[in-house]
Amino acid sequence: MVNLNTVLADMQTLIETESPSADLDACARVVQVANEMLTQRLGSPGKVINVAGRDHLWWGAEQPKVLVLGHIDTVWPIGTLAEIPFAINGDKLTGPGCVDMKSGVVQGIHAIAAANLPGVAYLLTTDEEIGSETSRGLIEQAAASAVAVLVLECAQHEALKTARKGTSNYEIVAHGLAAHAGLEPEKGINAGLAISEIALSVSKIGSAELGTTVTPTVIKAGTTTNTVPALAELSIDVRAWSATEQQRVDSEIKSITSSIPGIKIEVKGGINRPPMETKLSMGLFSLAQEIAPEVGITNLANAEVGGASDGNFTAAIGIPTIDGLGAVGAGSHARTEWVSVSAIEPRVKLLAEMITRLLKA
Ligand SMILES: [Zn+2]
Question: Which cofactors go with this protein (predicted)?
Fold first, then answer.
């Protein structure tokens, strides 16, 4: 049912087509290569959809019951392949983007071929690594009719990913008034002091118990060493497991004030990727656990991870979503990334069987 040599050859083809997210021509090329592969393995081509100059690829049903989701851009610049060529040594397959996530993408093609049923769409995007600005609408559109979204990012060690934190970003600007720090500092309004006070107070908004982090990151203030700062800025990185927590932090940050008279506070930014919550993934995880022993996977576990993926978008619109169904390996975004060859076949079978049971349910 699954021919490992064909799968490995397809992985080589896709990995050897370099595709850094920012390079639109390279992304268009990898879409062509993936589309040829889809045509060859699934019998029909996908539709190339251009959004704001960038190509994405949609194969299969227009209103799918099951959406399989992946991305074919990587974080690696053109030329990385020459330094880290595609190779297989023992159980380790290497090459730029192998674990994040071209091997997973190829596993997806062969799983859909094995399931061989109507009602599936396979969406392959090219801007995941830079925030999915042009693909988010397509992802939400493809997911809207689905009973399940299966995301092919790599496994966490061997575990499926059942929760991902949501992310929010803010910039707080404090406007004060400049004055000479030696002659008449009392006539100034110190924006630097105001932003320091705010940095301290926002750092207490997080919740260790709920895993919500609110981290002041970039802080800037003032112009010269003898001037009361008229302007100060603070960037804040927020991560949360639940939408409720994300909203709580959002309203607290947006209502922040200063105790310094005359300071004006401006808050920019907001919620970026919503969290992928376990309530939308655990049903799919149970299904995967039920199938796992039948395909030779023992002790399939689940993991909750801090980083976000495109699965965050589909979970946020209420569609059951699970992630980590792609390659087993390690080293995303690192030069040491690798994929386990012996794990390929069981993972293709697991995915094929999940697709089949979801379509028949
Ligand atoms: Zn990825």
Answer: Zn(2+)
Please give the distance, rounded to the nearest whole angstrom, from the Cα atom of residue 245 to the centre of ligand 1. Answer: 25
Q: In 10 A of CB 39, how many CB atoms?
A: 13
Phi, psi of 144 (to 5 degrees): -55, -40
d(CA 125, CA 69): 8
CA of 100 to the centre of ligand 1 (A): 5
Ligand 1 centroid – CA 230 distance (Å)? 42
User: What is the model's pLDDT at position 273?
Assistant: 86
Q: Distance from first CA to last CA of the chain, Å, rounded?
A: 22
Domain ranges of the chain: 4-165+275-360, 166-273
Phi/psi of residue 297, nearest 5 degrees: -105, 120
Confirm or reject CATH 3.40.50.1100 for domain 166-273, answering yes or no: no
- Span from the CA of 102 to the centroid of ligand 1 (angstroms): 9
Give the integer Cα–Cα distance in Å for 252 and 172.
Answer: 13
Beta-carbon contacts of 223 under 8 Å, excluding residues fewer than 6 positions away, are 178, 229, 230
pLDDT of residue 120 exceeding 90 = yes
CATH number for domain 4-165+275-360, candidates 3.40.50.10610, 3.40.630.10, 3.40.190.150, 3.40.50.150: 3.40.630.10
Binned at pLDDT 50, 70 and 90, residue 94 comes out as very high
- The predicted model scores a pTM of 0.85
